[in-house]
Amino acid sequence: MKNSPTLGEFEQMVLLGILRCGQEAYGVTIRAEIAACTGRDPAPGALYTTLDRLENKGIVLSWLGEATPQRGGRAKRYFALTKNGLAALVSAQRAYQSLLQGLGLLEELKLPGGVHARTQAYIIIC
Amino acid sequence: MRVPKRTLSFAEWVLGRLTSRERAASIVGDLVEIGATKGNRWLWFSIVRVVLAHLWRRPVAFIAAFYAGNRALSVLMKVSYGIHAQHRPPHQFAALVPGVYLLWIAAVYGAIRFGLRDRFAQFVLIAACVLTLALCYWWQPTILIACIAAAVLILGFCVRNRQLLRSVIALPLMAAVGYGGFLLTIFLMMRYWRLVSPVSLGSREFQEHPSIIWVSQLAWVLTAWIMTSTCSVAHRWTIRTPGSSREDADGATT
């Protein structure tokens, strides 16, 4: 067993969202990034409980930033991945990549004018 | 959008009961920021959803753990000491019965509260299963040996993972605190019984003093509460990561 903790699908989305936001990763931007990339608006409850859980597990860490008037004078809470969190994310993503390898799903879907016959068959079966 | 400051402070206070004050303030701040474009109704709906998301696991986990513990105890008592019990365990094994009862409380609580992916929850659940199996089939050498072998293998496996290793250390401590709480509540319950009715309890005494039943129920709830609280503390300790700092995060993300 690897030492990195196992991550759920939404946890991975949140971690990738944090990475994509970089230095500006706080609740609003993480949520917007996930919504923009996946087309799904994450439930606020799910997002904050996931962030709390990830922080308790030492996968992310947070610090308070500046308070702005449009937030009612409340401070932003910025998030970043720890080394442990990054290792867990890489490990989880590597597993996905291994499973995808040889299927050519991502490349085929990028082709103009439709998808490869094998992908079509796959979609029909599903 | 204008939301009265007092009502937002109230929302922050409610959230502050479920998480830290800083986290509550930043969550409300985030929702206010998004709510500026989405409207008041969205803001309040989101606050309610965040509160519910923080709230549901603890009571649901506690209730499920309470019933799971009671169920495990009644099954064990029936199998081991019931009138149809064919293989009554020796006295050395009898001491394990409350241990298994407490372990099932912790296992179900952990599985719901922290999720099945959590290493601590997984470990406690497996320990509860192995111990229950050993206690129910102590008279079958094959199963007993298989349980002991499984326990040794699990322990060997746990040494390789920091959280699991901490779980191995936390489990006996948690069981000891839970056992102490169990004995204390039983002692208090008995004291109350004697106070209310100095003679041995019969159906007449129960009818005359219905509070005996309530106090007994309260004692079981108290035991479950002590065990679940200990489980939460033990879990917090097992997941604590030393040396997580801002610099560490900067190093990881850049």
The amount of beta strand of chain A, in percent, is: 5-15%
Shape of chain A: globular
Q: Separation of termini of chain A?
A: 32 Å
Biggest sheet details of chain A: 2 strands, antiparallel
Q: Structural class of the helices, strands and pairings of chain B?
A: mainly alpha
Q: What is Rg of chain A?
A: 18 Å
What level of helicity do the residues of chain B show? over 70%
> How many helices of chain B does DSSP assign?
12
Average per-residue pLDDT of chain A, rounded, comes to 83
DSSP strand content of chain B = under 5%
What multimeric state do the chains show? heterodimer
Q: How do you describe this structure in short?
A:
The complex is a heterodimer of chains A (126) and B (254). With 126 residues, chain A is mainly alpha-helical.
What can you tell me about this protein's structure?
The complex is a heterodimer of chains A (126) and B (254). Chain A is mainly α and 126 residues long. Chain A is built from six helices and two strands. Chain A has helices at 9-21, 27-38, 44-56, 83-100, 105-110, 117-125; strands at residues 60-67, 75-81. The radius of gyration of chain A is 18 Å and the shape is globular. Chain A starts with 8 loop residues before the first helix and ends with a helix. The model of chain A has no long low-confidence stretch (mean pLDDT 83). Chain B has 254 residues and is mainly alpha-helical. Chain B contains twelve helices and no strands. Chain B is flat. The two termini of chain B are 38 Å apart. The model of chain B has no long low-confidence stretch (mean pLDDT 85).
